[in-house]
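A note from the maintainers: we've had questions about how concatenated examples are separated. There is no special marker in the raw files; a new sequence line simply starts the next protein. For clarity in this README we add a label.
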Amino acid sequence: MIVKELGVKNIIVKSASSWHSKIAAKIGANTIDYPEFEMAKKLVDGIRSPNILEQIELSKEYNLIEVVAPEEIWGKTIKNSGFRNNYGVNIIAIRKQIPFINDDGQSDMKEEINMVPGPENEIDQNDILVVVGSKESLVKLKGDK
């Protein structure tokens, strides 16, 4: 309430409960954040869908997720994988772990990111796919029931 009286235009409040959020809304909070709830949700999602590494809500209908490439598409090109037809999502980037020999002569891994993969790009074991799609289509990809 004090920052509102001081003329702050954008007020963000951390809320621990629905009661707190009602109070924050009444005194003029522009954004109400629920970090404990969001972390709990992320934990549950990670347990339910361990192949999903990250998820970002783009809108009420669409999400962007990072998913471990499913075994059934290893060694296939994006075009031949049937990924879009089977899951209804678009692959917008591929993160690959590339083995290399470091300056000490030891085997190591480095990450390469293809930010605009084409239909002929091959999907390998351990690739991380960055995909975008409707929440409805992502349910099938995530394996949620």
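[label: protein 2]
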Amino acid sequence: MLVSGETERIIGRAKRGDELDEEDVAYLYDYADLKELGREARKVADSISGNRVSFVSNLILNYTNICNVRCKFCAFYRTGKEEDSYSWTEDQVVEEIGKYYGKFGIRQLLIQGGVNPALDADYFYAIFRRIRKEFPSLGIHGLSTSEISFFSRKAKLSVEAFLEKLRESGLETIPGAGGEIFDSEIRVQLGRPRDSGKEWLSIMETAHRMGIKTSSTMMYGHVEESVHKARHLLSILALQKKYHGFLSFTPWNFEPGNTELERAGKVKFRAGGEDVLRNIAIARIVFGKELPVIQSSWLTNGIEMGQLAVMFGANDWGGTIYDEKVIPATGRDVGNLRKETIITSLRNIGMVPVERDNLYRTVEIFQ
């Protein structure tokens, strides 16, 4: 078949380490057979990590829901005037972490909230120092690029200087939040500043140059087209080749519930299972061994789809979940997920679960 032959040509180029262009990647999105993509993506994953799939005992801490960015795809943010607006004090943050840290062996703290203008840089320095003191084995995976941009400017510091102060206070890594789709026109439609995609890449490059590792993400299933996703992946790959500072990549599908995009009728439904698997497989093929860890994005898709994502090229499950707040704001109940369930889910598809820490170092292998 012509389609299969073209897919084979593109995948072959990726395997040889040849540079793909946006037309190649967009072709995989628009025309490649899904099963063919999945088979090839799993071969790449097998060559990197075999049948081992990692996960982390993680706690997501949303310290505030007040944000002045007003993203059209977000159901979580509040202006500060609503009754359910909140910002946690240092003691409240410590109390929340304490509920889970010892009981569940938490090793990674994903801490992010919103761009709350009532807070300042000192708030984060104090909280990070307190977390490092109270929970010494906890890796702080903290703050979106939007938060880093705003609070560095508010403190009259360069991004580099702000990141250095955060690192001195206890920051270990930076999450990929805020990536969405880098294209300027798409970001405007999503309610983001026009140049915020370029800013995301710039902040990540600064962090990588400083030796701070980060994650990377892509949000799909809204107003983007295949070419926008292709450019997004290739931009991440280009930066990865410069510093190899990205620890992982997570493609996640937009949840339209209770968002402005849904109310405006621009997005009525979430992306389906085929889209989820296609995005996983294409990311694996495009990144190859340059960015070796692809997360399953189970949080927005459920355990069964998380298992399928592994079969289509993912080799990291992501993390445990305890009372996460952002996705439930869309009306989608994700519940809690403990590591025992992750271990069972991976074993059931013939994989060997590997618990890791925030820096992807092995903690325990569950043979």
